[in-house]
Amino acid sequence: MAQDLMDRELDVLDKERVAPVETLRRSDEALRLPAVAPPTALPLEPPLVPQVGEQTRAVGLRAQRPDSRNHGLGLTRYIDDIALPGMLFAKIKRAGIASARIKRIDTSRAEAMPGVCAVLVGSEIPVNSFGPSLQDQPLLAHPIVRHAGDGVAAVAAVTEQIAQAAIDAITVEYEPLPGVYDALEALKPESYKVHGGDTNVYASKVIKRGDVEAGFAQAYRIYEGRYYTPGIEHAPMEPFTSIADWDANGRLTIHASIGRITLARCDLARTLAIPISRIRVIGTVVGGNFGGKNEIRHEPVLALLAKKAGRPVKGRFNRVEEFVASTIRHAFHMDYKTGVTKDGRLIARQVRMVLDGGAYCSFSETTLGKACILSTGPYEIPNSLAEGYVVYTNKTTAGSMRGFGAPQVCFAYESQMDEIARDLGIDPVEIRLRNMFREGSMSSTGQVLHSVKVKESLENAVKKFGWEVQS
Amino acid sequence: MKPFGYVAAIDSEHAVALLAEYGKGAKVLAGGTDLLADLKFSPHPPPDVVVDISRAADLKGIALTDAGLRLGAMVTHSEIVHSPLIAEAAPALAEAAVVIGAVQTRNLGTIGGNLITCVPSMDSGPTLLALDARVTVLGPRGRREMPLSELFVGPRRTSLAFDEILIEIVVPTQNLHKPAAFQKFGLRKGQALALVNAAASFWAPDGVFTEPRIALGAVAPTVIRAPKAEAYLTGRPVSEEAMAEAGRIAATEAKPITDFRASAEYRRDLVAVLVKRALAGAFGRVTPNQKDLAS
Amino acid sequence: MIVTLTVNGELRSASVPPETTLLVMLREHLHLTGAKTGCDVGDCGACTVIVDGLAVNACLMLAAQADGRTVTTIEGLATREGLHPLQKVFEETGALQCGFCGPGVIMTSKALLDHTPEPTPQEIRTALTGNLCRCTGYVKMIEGVQEAAAMMRSPQSPALAGQSPALAAPEQK
Ligand SMILES: Cc1cc2nc3c(=O)[nH]c(=O)nc-3n(C[C@H](O)[C@H](O)[C@H](O)COP(=O)(O)OP(=O)(O)OC[C@H]3O[C@@H](n4cnc5c(N)ncnc54)[C@H](O)[C@@H]3O)c2cc1C
Ligand code: FES
Ligand code: FES
Questions:
Q1: N or C end of chain B: smaller count of CB under 10 Å?
Q2: Which SUPFAM superfamilies match (chain B) (predicted)?
């Protein structure tokens, strides 16, 4: 029976052999046609965006993005829509172990694979470090692995499939090391030190105004609370993708979905040890950034692979790498102590925060700074003390994300505000209005504020969401 | 994806012949929503060849036959959602199909693939179990027919041999129009696997629970029935309290695990609630002449 | 193997390895890069295209499975005469920000409107369940789909003038 069925020749692999002549002819013709999209005449209509020099009424009109027509047509060229002639595809082998010493890497099977053009490991990289503030991140880990998303080897091959197969064929022998996976643990003197030395703290900040102790002494009540916000992945819809391309004069062009071109060039120049004038970074339309695409990531690895192979190299993260090998929002541990008068005025606030920085620094200092500045909230508090620390842990690197620490502290101080209001029996909106910044208020950093509209904003919002009805 | 070969079957017999030809190196491909997602990230060697059954005409179609309501294994979740026949004779099946994944997944994913993947959280299983569905399997040794419950062996394991395919699922004639309902609770309303799902069916002649069936998903290695809860209901007058009690009993029959989606205790609580809701939903479908309709 | 599709009204073939997904065939072999790779496992909908009238995840379908079938991608919506109403409305209302999810959202919405010319907001939400957008929050998209639906129902819709017959709505199933 089986043979009988096979003779019906419906095996699609053998389809050409059995297809009617007409189908064959059509199929061949289709193959000969260039594989292009059906024509879309451009521009389709006069563009909707205002022309240079044209005066437009803006208020009350629908805003139109200059790029939205291309978006809707599918014509926006994101980085993964770009291919250079002769381009290779890179894959990076991820450690998959959070804390270890690499004992041995065997790349011989990968190198022998047909289609593999270049293999790279950390030990052969002259300047094996990069980073937008501290240069504490290796291009490829060697010999210490500090988090599971660390790259340990990279391959460039003629297809992504072959690059993946080559990565799978690379064997790495690890000696597991102890690790630290909690920011508060990492503070302890006996904790494992992610980067050696005698502490995991790599950035700290103190902001002081008035005298908190005196403030607490005057307070009618003191509230203490611990608040925690977890790490968050940016999860842009467009995964990290970049192309590295050298010319014969030793000039490097990087095409990348990245938001900070000059910072990227500086960092690349340092790690590749070539003058910045030889590096061009072309930022492509970013398919979602949210702070996660502010710094270079795999670009120096792609550049080194491209140099070895003598051909342009594209690397793209898959969705899993996006979670383990990109940056995330810092997890915050926050202790808030607030002294309040009988009528609900905040007179002293002490904040202590510990940020989980993950394995490398990235934009931790900026995040810590903003968080400390904003940690007292939009409230006039005569006495305040904010101190913050960022610590290394053997986890995904934390970096910049929308607000640089502002949402985390906001969660803490607003949560505590609600607790205070409830305890004192004051309406939550009312207690905020009593403490809010107003014209001429001084912030915790000593800045005198002008054009303060926060009260009006809150009153407007309260009207819009119908607070009176609810309370 | 790793390299593999591809052949397409024109019908179920051809598919079985191709499986015989390629042996254990072959893998059946239906809608591909489970298989391709697996193959992309699997550390295991790929199959030598995938046997595409998505063009097999005799595996398609929803129809009433002498045996009952027949769904070909290649019927997609979307086809179930939009089928007038199902809306009429077994609407709970559509209730279960419409909460699977999203539109795009439902347009590709098939009921056969859902049952054969056999994850405990599958959304097709509970309603079919609650309606005493039977399945037909075809292999080199011919056809065999069995209750759906005998197909499920464990997580991602069925009683199907490597050279067999599932060809159809039948809701028996006597259970058409049987009042039934399906409930699912996930972390989101769409595009989320069930933390728990449940289905219930019963006849209610003279307001008495008759032939009650309760099936639970995501709380045991396979989709299971809750026999103690069913026994409790049998012969009892229909009431909200009885439904709630059946839910509580079913919760004791569940063997949920704790994982990153939810704790075992939470899942157990969900069982009690969802069973009660499924029973109430089924009761909403009871019409006075239902028993006659079915016979 | 050789796979032949009718893409956006034209017959196209490509010689691809059997494990090639429809998404890879469209993007890398036919250079139709409108459909995007967001997750590659069916979760995000950035790869949505319409196959024989139904919205599907091109990342979860083998090119071979689409052999001989009719595929419409985002590139096939506009004509020389004008934008598809969805494209027009999405442009005017700023329904997209970074735009990466846009081709998928528009294709899913087109498939919805082809079958349901007058969708309720809930029907639109249900249809868009499988299209993740990290930028917008969906509100303008949902309004946009309703607006486009109204536009398509009115016979004088200028944006419809150029609809090519090959892309006319498929038969109601
Ligand atoms: C984004 C996403 C969301 C999802 N959400 C849900 C959800 O909410 N609920 C849910 O239950 N499922 C969900 N799924 C899982 C999946 O869509 C279903 O299980 C689907 O029904 C599988 O059918 P398929 O045709 O795609 O199977 P395939 O992927 O083609 O096959 C699955 C398995 O079954 C085997 N197989 C298929 N048909 C047969 C047959 N006739 N005979 C023998 N073997 C066969 C295949 O060899 C394979 O091992 C989701 C999947 C995705 C990608
Ligand atoms: S890329 Fe296909 S669903 Fe995300
Ligand atoms: S507009 Fe950026 S993901 Fe939707």
A1: C
A2: CO dehydrogenase flavoprotein C-terminal domain-like, FAD-binding/transporter-associated domain-like
What residues make up the domain containing A217?
Answer: 183-233+327-457
Check: complex ipTM more than 0.90: yes
Q: Which of residues 72-101 of C touch A (CB under 8 A)?
A: 73-80, 82-83, 86-88, 90-101
For residue A391, the CA-to-ligand 3 centroid distance in Å is: 33
Task: Using CA coordinates, name the residue in chain B closest to C112.
Answer: B103
Q: What is the pLDDT of residues A345-356, one digit of tens each?
A: 999 999 999 999
CATH number, span B58-172: 3.30.465.10
Does the beta carbon of B33 lie inside 6 Å of ligand 1? Answer: yes
Q: Look at chain A and report how many structural domains it folds into.
A: 3
**A294: domain CATH number?**
3.30.365.10
From chain A residues 3-22, the ones with a CB under 8 A of any chain B CB are 5-6, 8, 10-13
Residue B102 Cα to ligand 1 midpoint, Å, equals: 13
User: Nearest bound ligand to CA C49?
Assistant: 2
The CATH architecture that domain B5-52 belongs to is: 2-Layer Sandwich (3.30)
Which DSSP string do the residues of chain B spell out, in sequence order? ----EEEE-SSHHHHHHHHHHHGGGEEEESS-TTHHHHHHH-SSPPPSEEEE-TT-GGG--EEE-SSEEEEETT-BHHHHHH-HHHHHH-HHHHHHHTTSS-HHHHHH-BHHHHHHH--TT-SSHHHHHHTT-EEEEEETTEEEEEEGGGTEEETTEES--TT-EEEEEEEEGGGTT--EEEEEEESSSSS--EEEEEEEEEE-GGGB-EEEEEEEESSSSS-EE-HHHHHHHTTPBP-HHHHHHHHHHHHHH------SS--HHHHHHHHHHHHHHHHHHHHHT--TTHHHHH-
